[in-house]
User: Which sequence fits this backbone?
């Protein structure tokens, strides 16, 4: 099985999650390629069994590099005739969506639109969604936004315990996909 991890990370939170996912996949014997979103334009998502895509939530949306990548790849696949009416499932093609957020104001509700945007992209391609994860991360650069939001004190997130859980959850997804 081959997997691709595509992500963008402004402050390191999303990169930490991507690395935990990579560890889980490799532990499961899956071949993994990890690329920054800017390098992913040349990747063919259809050549992988699992594509993992991650982004921080920026004002309820994926970060600009991920949004730009999704638009570019959607146009490419549409021109290649791979976007079909009704978005039929493509056997053996799966996606894992992960979104980091700090939620200085309302928490996870700030992140879900970003994750759902990425999910819809893969559903349009006909990929089966293996998981959609939202991970709390410290808001870097402003102490008040890491301590006074609805989530309370989120400094140091994601923690090593959080990352271990992501690794274990990834191993479970890998088991489900390789059955």
Assistant:
């Amino acid at each position: 099985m081959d997997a691709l991890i595509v992500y963008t990370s402004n402050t390191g939170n999303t990169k930490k999650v991507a690395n935990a996912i990579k560890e889980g996949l490799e532990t499961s014997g899956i071949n993994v390629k990890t690329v920054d979103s800017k390098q992913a334009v040349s990747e063919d998502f259809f050549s992988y069994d699992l594509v993992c895509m991650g982004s921080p939530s920026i004002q309820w949306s994926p970060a600009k590099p991920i949004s730009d990548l999704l638009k570019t790849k959607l146009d490419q696949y549409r021109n290649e005739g791979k976007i079909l009416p009704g978005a039929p499932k493509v056997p053996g093609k799966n996606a894992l969506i992960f979104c980091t957020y700090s939620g200085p104001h309302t928490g996870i509700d700030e992140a879900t639109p970003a994750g759902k945007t990425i999910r819809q992209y893969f559903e349009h391609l006909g990929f089966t969604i293996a998981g959609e994860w939202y991970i709390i991360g410290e808001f870097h650069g402003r102490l008040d936004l890491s301590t006074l939001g609805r989530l309370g004190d989120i400094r140091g997130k994601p923690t090593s315990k959080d990352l271990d859980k992501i690794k274990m959850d990834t191993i479970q997804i890998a088991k489900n996909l390789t059955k």
